[in-house]
From TrEMBL, chain B:
Keywords: ATP-binding, Cell membrane, Ion transport, Iron, Iron transport, Membrane, Nucleotide-binding, Transport
CC annotations in GO: plasma membrane
Entries under Pfam families matching the protein: ABC_tran (PF00005)
Annotated InterPro entries: AAA+_ATPase, ABC_transporter-like_ATP-bd, ABC_transporter-like_CS, P-loop_NTPase, Siderophore_ABC-ATPase
Source organism of the structure: Mycetocola manganoxydans
Any one GO molecular-function label of the UniProt entry: ATP binding
Gene Ontology biological process terms, A to Z: iron ion transport
Protein localization: Cell membrane
Membrane topology: Peripheral membrane protein
Residue span, ABC transporter domain: 2-236
Protein name: ATP-binding cassette domain-containing protein
Position of the signal peptide: none
Amino acid sequence: MLSTFIGVSDVSPLSLLEGGPDGKAAQLLVVSRLPRTLALVLTGVAMSIVGLIMQMLVRNKFVEPSTTGTAESAALGLLVVTIFAPTLPLFGKMVVAAIFALAGTGLFLLILRRIPVRSIVLVPLVGIMLGGVIGAVTTFFAYRLDLLQTLGTWLTGDFSGILRGRYELLWLALAMTVIAWIAADRFTVVGLGQEFTTNLGLRYGRVLALGLTIVAVVTAIVVVTAGVIPFLGLIVPNIVSIAMGDNVRRSIPWVAVLGAGFVLACDIVGRLLRFPYEIPLGIVVGVVGSVLFLYLLLRRPSRAH
Amino acid sequence: MISISQVTKRYGRQAVVDDVSLELGGCGITSIIGPNGAGKSTLLSMVARLLPLDGGTITIDGLDVRTTPGSVLATKVAVLRQDNHLAARLTVQDLVSFGRYPYSKGRLTSVDRDAIARAIGYLDLEPFVDRFLDELSGGQRQRAFIAMVLAQDTDYVLLDEPLNNLDLRHAVDIMKLLRAAADDTGKRIVLVMHDINFASVYSDEIVAMRDGRVVLHGPSSEVMQSEVLGLIYDLPIDVREVDGERIGYYYR
């Protein structure tokens, strides 16, 4: 609610009533403010849940699309479309980005299988390095083709440009998270490991494929619409995990609510700190998130892990 | 009955399990013993379809482990490997409930709830049901995993070194429990064991393996002989009778 009434132009319940349905305030609300708030909520929910699913699939608490090369791969895919088929509709661009994201995440898992020592911190490091390599390739071509600025908007979530007609794909991301909710128990079982999964009669490969598809599609959607919010998929599931454990069916609703709430709060802060200017959401989440994350890291050794 | 017929597993050129034929699970508790690298765990993993076979066939009550759907086998045989480090934070209640997944697919019926409560009660886990696994001691955690496997309610239970990392008291507790489970519920339990004396005291049958082959399979009194054990472990083992149990002495 609050999120829709904050902004440069005066939009308040009072001005809405005065202007009536055709007033300037109402129009602003429908065209810009409401889409923005919806986009924030949808992105927050989807990115948080995708982080949770990745953590179950990889069995590591420190992975999410921006620490596994997934987001960078999606951006590379989007760059390829922008160069070779710039007229493709948004949905087509998203599909290509999703395919790239899937391939990038698959590559990450392949590399992990080859690394014998599976230290907890090594896993996200590998992902960040892979993301760095893919990101470097993307940056090189973006630089050559003068697309650097566009690239920046894909990888740092900024919701100031969200208007009606430019965020609706995010509903598809929400649909993917509903699928994740339906399959929640499968993801918990996979989080127990391949041997437990087989023992309980599930096909490990299939659940992995389903999870990766959800992760890739959601990441691609977020990249083509608002841009990735770093850390979000890391912090939110970890907080929920500490509070109530990793039974996905039970934690998914909380991850969704907390994800949406966290993003909305960060967005409001970003819009108010330098009013009437804005600090991009990605930066606010990054700062708040890294502090929270440090706290999580430091309290971890006290647990028997 | 678990029928293993001419089963082979190779890693590179080396056969870890070499043309093994065996009938397992004819009675309460069967222990597989042998030195490191004898192929015990590999054999168990193949029976539990955790590893593919390179040759031969394994059937469980006539069901081929290679072709039978995993969801069907999951109601026939349950397996627990050693060193179960979970990254996921689950409560004891949740973990044991997932033992019912082959039946419930996540939606627990009253039958499932009964089985879960029984397994938890059987392993004396009631005080810990709401505790997270990472807040338990090694012995309690191992009991939680065994409760999960028992809740799966299968005729056959395969456990790979269930006493690993347990102190003496907990090791004895677990073995007594397994013995009781075999006697009370008619389960067929197959264990991979390192401690020959635990195997001797608690098993009905022992399978002795070395270099990927079965050296001897018979009643535990038959396998617990100085000559047999000496041959398997390349170590002089003096087997004596203590309180009617055959105990191997090999410490010096």
